[in-house]
Amino acid sequence: MNERPFAGPERTIRAAVDADAAVLGRMRAAQQIELDGPVSPAEAEAYASACVAFFARELAAPEPWVFGWIAESAGVPVGAAVLTIAPGMPRLGAAGCGPDGRIRNVYVTEHARRRGIARELTRAAIDASERLGVARLVLGASAAGRNVYAKLGFVEKSDEMVYRRPVVAAGDVARTGDAADRAFDILDR
Q1: Segments forming the whole domain that contains residue 68
Q2: How far apart are CA 41 and CA 38, in angstroms?
Q3: Which of 74, 142, 78 is nearest to 111 (CA)?
Q4: b/e map of 113-132 (b: 16 or more CB within 10 Å)?
Q5: How are strands ordered across the β-sheet holding 66-73?
Q6: Quick check: pTM over 0.90?
Q7: Residue 70: CB partners within 8 Å, gap ≥ 6?
Q8: What DSSP character marks residue 19?
Q9: Which of 1, 26, 25 is nearest to 14 (CA)?
Q10: What DSSP designation does 93 have?
């Protein structure tokens, strides 16, 4: 079942479809801007547009590696989460190997927070990862989300680091540097 109530009959968590690219893209942009700080309106719009284009392309792919969920209250989106899948490598102590999964962009709009929506979105992604045979599931957690994820069984792992390729400034002669290119660079964060 793809729908689950979280606090009433008009509130559901549902699997995203191709037509939800704008919701997932705008929610991702809102989350990243909230976490990374203020940006100009033009940069925010370019980033949101790049996110929407990404989800439009990937949700429609014949062999998808990106899956999403939307939380709705009375038909209005109030949250979203994304699961990405990649080939897995054998691991010491594991019989066989399955794909790796990463839960990304668990985001709930400010007015809908602290109602269990993030937990339910994450649970939907966990359930899907199990159906897809994911062997290893990871996520990045903000300070606000750590307790939610720990209660779902995630444990902290302190041996990873992230390399972030520098974002090319507009006008850089080495690259086009236009806002859409920069937004796609940011999308990798």
Answers
A1: 4-187
A2: 9
A3: 78
A4: eebebbbbbbbbbbebbeee
A5: 4-5, 11-15, 66-73, 76-86, 100-108, 136-139
A6: no
A7: 13, 14, 16, 20, 23, 24, 77, 79, 80
A8: G
A9: 1
A10: T
How far, in Å, CA of 116 to CA of 136, rounded? 24
47 vs 53: CA distance, rounded Å: 10
Write the pLDDT tens digit of every residue in 30-86: 999 998 888 999 999 999 999 999 999 999 999 999 999 999 999 999 999 999 999
Which of helix, strand or coil describes residue 4? Answer: strand
Q: Work out whether strand 136-139 and strand 100-108 pair parallel, antiparallel, or are unpaired.
A: parallel
Q: Name the residue with tokens 């590696």.
A: 65
Burial class (CB in 10 A: 0-12, 13-18, 19+), 157: exposed
CATH number of the domain within which 160 lies: 3.40.630.30
The number of distinct structural domains making up the chain is: 1
Per-residue DSSP letters for 52-86? HHHHHHHHT-SS--EEEEEEEETTEEEEEEEEEEE
What stretches of 75-175 adopt beta strand conformation (E)? 76-86, 100-108, 136-139
